[in-house]
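can u do me a favor
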């Protein structure tokens, strides 16, 4: 009966008074008998509200109120009839965010947050968990708040959302920013930056978004840093905490009891998702090679074309796959005769000037197609998501970045590839997170997921918290735990760590990378320090042989077993790092990559366009993963170890900090690096540099740009102005 009602709602054009009453009555009965089924019907009603008789709007309002969908009462302008209903609605109005209503489950969690309990929440993607972060911030209840999120893209999204509270908080996004003594402080940081931040003030509220990344069992290389950051803040400050994530069944047994927390799981959602199984409809026809591969792509492209104006995300296993499929889809669009789509965006001029006018992304954007992955520069990913949410881009080819919570307004999600990277299958947890991107609270009542693969088998997800459970636990987490709190003191692992001299243990803890590698590295530097002194002990900018030696040490000793480095090699990392330090140009990096690949036999069958696209992808990957993350960290570790060894034997040490920080900040002047955090392109920062005093505090740089209207000068491209203005100006300028 329920499916018949939903089918009728979908297919009929209009319902008269009697038909409307009948469907509303069935919905009311369903809500009494099985509220999940009743909610599903109600969402379908709201999705097609214009079809129903407005004479029964009060009845509809009562149905919506009965299950606590208070935000939708306001959205649909539905008026409640009874005084008691109006009182309940008013009680769900935010006390701190203007004209914002919580739904029933949000209000329950908010009450938990306002109690003496810490709160750990598992709720669907469309639940609206992040609204509660804003409510806590807007309450001004806490002096110092830390929000830890897994990616810089998520942090940037959060910063933009919370920038309206800048009058009351200093918003800190970099480790070089000092906390304020006059205002409250809001730290928006990755776990790595929490660990690097020196002298955090007394933190009284902590948020960890996507807290499932604490788990050591989900193959996330940043699990160690998140565990260390969480443990450090808990032990140092004992703050209230709020952990949030999707589709989790439980956490390490005993954790909630020890830390006065409540774990709360809910499936409550104001969005419905329909699953459409294309895999079984085409059983035996889909494949990864040959004609089956072509057929699967053809079905995908025809589906996207048929969806027309609806925003759709396609899940792809890797950046290379996302870019390949987006380019192939554009060819499909052109073959259909849709060449009139020639969207002109400011970003295209920027790409032509600062990357390549031949990059396939330009053609994609002109046809309303985009791709999104972790290799792209921050300003590009944020622009592409913005274009998608505004409906300029209709088809977005994404990697696992969508699993990690990038907020989009996608009506449809297409589960096209069945793996993450080359070999890791998408499990039920990942699938649920991908599915959760279909539909959007307050945007789409109903989303759809199109399955091109079998739905992964259900598996119950219990998130282990390694620093608490300690089984399993990495050396990098265990070495930071106080001896009294270590559970398995008789283990070989703990005996090994305990055998490291205290001063070396302290050094290894501070460096926070592969412990056994550091242990071997310190022995190697002790062995080489006399013979290779000139290669080890350099300052400022290294010569080629000095960089080759030091990065070689990092490559040989600091890479954890099983770590995926492809397509990078030991020789290549030295050359690209040294060359980029000289020319500091993405265009030159792309050209170098292109020339290198043209000489390789495996690219003989590739077209110049294909080689160029891969060269650009590799170049951005080098910038994001190697230059802005891996290499600076490696150099600082080698630096600390050589300083330690030099101190032991009484000789002058080297100092790599200037070079390491220069690479990490893309050779941008220190007080302007904050602009990159704000998603402003390097090209614009270079133009801004001559107008900003080098001694101006970084916290005042944006105000200086706005007050003097630097971005209005003729040398700035419209895209560069757009990135400055749209992201950071909240007041009239």
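np, heres the sequence
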């Amino acid at each position: 009966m329920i499916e018949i009602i939903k089918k009728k709602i979908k297919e009929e054009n209009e319902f008269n008074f009697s038909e409307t009453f009948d469907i509303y009555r069935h919905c009311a009965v369903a809500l009494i008998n099985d509220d999940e089924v009743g909610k599903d019907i109600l969402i379908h009603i709201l999705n097609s509200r214009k079809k129903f008789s407005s004479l029964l709007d009060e009845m509809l309002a009562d149905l919506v109120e009965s299950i606590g969908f208070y935000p939708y009462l306001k959205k649909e302008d539905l008026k409640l009839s009874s005084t008691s209903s109006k009182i309940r609605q008013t009680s769900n109005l935010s006390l701190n965010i203007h004209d914002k209503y919580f739904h029933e489950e949000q209000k329950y969690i908010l009450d938990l947050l306002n109690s003496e309990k810490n709160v750990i929440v598992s709720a669907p993607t469309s639940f609206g968990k992040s609204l509660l972060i804003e409510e806590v911030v807007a309450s001004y209840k806490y002096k110092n708040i830390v929000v830890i999120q897994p990616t810089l893209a998520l942090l940037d999204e959060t910063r933009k959302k919370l920038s309206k509270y800048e009058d009351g908080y200093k918003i800190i996004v970099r480790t070089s920013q000092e906390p304020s003594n006059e205002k409250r402080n809001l730290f928006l940081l990755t776990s790595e930056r929490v660990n690097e931040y020196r002298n955090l003030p007394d933190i009284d509220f902590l948020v960890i978004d996507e807290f499932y990344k604490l788990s050591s069992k989900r193959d996330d290389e940043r699990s160690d840093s998140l565990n260390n950051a969480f443990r450090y803040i808990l032990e140092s400050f004992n703050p209230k905490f709020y952990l949030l994530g999707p589709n989790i069944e439980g956490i390490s047994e005993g954790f909630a009891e020890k830390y006065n927390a409540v774990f709360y799981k809910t499936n409550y959602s104001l969005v419905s998702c329909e699953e459409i199984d294309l895999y079984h409809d085409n059983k035996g026809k889909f494949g990864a090679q040959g004609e089956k591969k072509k057929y699967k792509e053809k079905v995908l492209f025809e589906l996207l074309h048929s969806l027309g104006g609806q925003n759709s995300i396609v899940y792809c296993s890797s950046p290379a796959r996302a870019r390949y499929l987006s380019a192939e889809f554009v060819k499909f669009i052109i073959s259909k005769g849709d060449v009139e789509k020639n969207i002109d965006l400011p970003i295209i001029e920027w790409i032509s000037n600062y990357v390549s006018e031949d990059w396939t992304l330009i053609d994609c954007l002109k046809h309303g197609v985009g791709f999104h992955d972790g290799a792209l520069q921050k300003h590009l990913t944020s622009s592409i998501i913005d274009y998608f949410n505004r409906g300029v881009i209709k088809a977005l080819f994404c990697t696992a970045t969508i699993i990690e919570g990038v907020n989009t307004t996608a009506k449809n999600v297409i589960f096209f590839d069945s793996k993450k990277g080359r070999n890791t299958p998408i499990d039920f947890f990942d699938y649920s997170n991908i599915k959760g991107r279909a539909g959007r609270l307050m945007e789409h009542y109903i989303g759809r997921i199109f399955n091109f693969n079998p739905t992964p088998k259900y598996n119950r997800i219990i998130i282990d918290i390694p620093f608490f459970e300690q089984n399993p636990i990495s050396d990098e987490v265990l070495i930071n735990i106080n001896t009294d709190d270590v559970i398995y003191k008789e283990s070989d692992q703990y005996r090994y760590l305990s055998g490291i001299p205290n001063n070396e243990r302290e050094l290894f803890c501070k460096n926070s990378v592969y412990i056994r590698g550091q242990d071997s590295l310190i022995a190697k530097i002790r062995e080489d320090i006399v013979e290779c002194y000139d290669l080890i002990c350099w300052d400022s900018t290294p010569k080629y042989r000095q960089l080759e030696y030091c990065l070689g040490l990092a490559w040989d000793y600091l890479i954890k077993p099983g770590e995926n480095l492809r397509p990078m090699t030991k020789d290549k990392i030295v050359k690209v790092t040294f060359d980029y330090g000289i020319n500091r140009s993405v265009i030159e990096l792309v050209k170098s990559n292109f020339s290198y690949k043209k000489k390789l036999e495996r690219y003989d069958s590739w077209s110049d366009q294909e080689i160029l696209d891969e060269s650009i992808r590799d170049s951005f990957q080098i910038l994001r993963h190697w230059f802005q993350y891996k290499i600076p960290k490696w150099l600082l570790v080698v630096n600390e170890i050589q300083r330690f060894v030099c101190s032991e034997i009484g000789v002058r040490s080297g100092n790599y900090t200037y070079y390491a920080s220069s690479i990490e900040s893309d050779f941008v002047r220190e007080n302007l690096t904050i602009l990159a955090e704000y998603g402003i392109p390097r090209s614009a920062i270079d133009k801004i540099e001559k107008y900003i005093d080098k001694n101006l505090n970084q916290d005042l740089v944006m105000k200086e740009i706005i007050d003097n209207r630097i971005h209005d000068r003729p040398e700035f491209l419209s895209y560069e102005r757009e990135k400055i203005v749209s992201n950071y100006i909240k007041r009239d300028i």
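Residues 104-265 form a domain with the Rossmann fold fold (CATH 3.40.50.300). hope that helps!!
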